[in-house]
Amino acid sequence: MTSENIFLFVPNLIGYARVILAIISFYFMPTNYIIATWCYVVSALLDAFDGHAARYYNQSTKFGGILDQLTDRCGTMILCAVLGYFYPKYMLLFHLSMCIDIACHWIYLHTSLLQGKTSHKFIDMSENAIMSIYYTSRPVLFFMCAGNEAFYAALYLIHFTEGPLIAGIGLYKLIAYISAPVAIVKSLISLLHLYVACMNLSIIDVNERAALRGKQK
User: Residue 119: pLDDT above 50?
Assistant: First the structure.
């Protein structure tokens, strides 16, 4: 029986293309906003295609999921770092945004792997009506992620140009105004993930300490 080479699965090949486009975008971000924006946007859009490819070809893998997450997180992180350079007055806010995005996603994913299905006491955010919609509705999740990316991308473009005027206001500035609430809500949801992950970690610690005391008796 020939073992599968998951590194050559179609969705993972798309993932590699996303990484290459992201790196090109990072290189041109300080100097050429046209190339940087196109590469960044295409890399982000391919995020939807790799998911469809994984389901269509039945090639969903943990490696692909992690690759996807890391590409998303690193892409937003670098963009925020560049924005902090472009808007030094608001550098702290961009740094906080980076920390919230990275820390909340990491601890929630790590805690999910640790907890498994070993206890009914774990907090499940899907039991909340609002969070249930966030987790189960692809359109809602796409809207939140797209709105968040649109906000930071618009701030990036405004540094170079406000774009064509619409009702007396630049297109990119208009996008920034409209998408700002989405970015704020997404950060709040990330902080909720952080809170829940910390609570679940405390449950894991309590269970493990109780089990250890039981063995020592």
Answer: no
